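Chapter review: from sequence to fold.
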Amino acid sequence: EDYPQTLRFCPDAPTLLFIKGNKKALQRKSIAVIGTRNHTAYGKDWCKAFIHDLKELPLHIISGLAYGIDGCAHAESLRLNSNKFLERLEDLPISMLAVDEAHCISQWGYDFRPAYLHIASVKNYLNNVPIIALTASATPKVKDDIVEKLKLKNPSFFFGSFARENLSYQVVQADDKINFLKKLLIQHPGSSIVYCRTRKRTKEFSDLLQQFQFKADFYHAGLNQEQRTTKQQDWISGKIDCIVCTNAFGMGIDKPDVRLVVHMDVPDCLENYYQEAGRAGRDGKYAAAVLLYRNQELEELKQLPNQKFPGIDVIRKVYKAVCNYFQLPIGSGNGKFFDFDIQAFTTAFKLNLFEVLYCL
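The token string follows.
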């Protein structure tokens, strides 16, 4: 209540639904809210959409922002380096800058997003307003990075417990994962999230669950914006109970009544797992987070650091193969562009696909 006019920056990928959900929640509390709503008219130019919303605000809302009635503006982080956007900010009496999902600003954090690095520059246009940075998962290293990147001076820190008393964490060895998943969904009726490592598996598991008469659908980043928005809305509204997805789903989505989160594959990062599992039981009622694994997966996981951080000999081998593939003499090729079929490349030189990806 001390800071009625708030400018809030959100992560870019699932922002549209996040903004819509927050707008509705704030409007129910009689708080004036604006956001990038006209995205279809402006394509990918979220800045134009946001500025359009600012210009088209009804007179009573503009008066409210100017004279002390509560107001909140949501901005999408990709356009923070737009001069038009920043010039428009100077016309608004912003009283607070809130950075949600602040771990995205750190290269050491979960889901690093370079666009977040522009946020600190916005402070120059806001007359030293108070800043709050919020995250549910920040290691000490990430915390320090947030302070540095946002250029916070003598900040105060407020910590909640990582323990979730209402959330049951379970790790289960299961060779027949789909049948175990069926049992879990029956034991935990209501809204659920099932995470898979690949896009292909989201569709496969969703189809199987539908055959078993579960109200399920799949989600991944390969879908177009309209499809993703529709699937998210269907899940949030309760039209479907189970969303089978990759880790592209969830950021910025706050659905309090999720009773079950299942990981069908072992996550490669504990921080990622904590973020995703923590989407269950946000209403404070009992919920379960279940990780299903096979012994073979654990062995593959042990090899992952070697794949993600290949040695210098492996890197040299891959780059030499790339030069041979494009018939490039040593010292040439700078500034040139080539079409690259990575599948054909790895087949031709008998290289491991993931090893090549991590080298490049």
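Two observations follow directly from the output. Confidence is low (pLDDT under 50) at residues 1-5, 10-17, 36-47, 59-71. The first strand starts at residue 5 and ends at 10.
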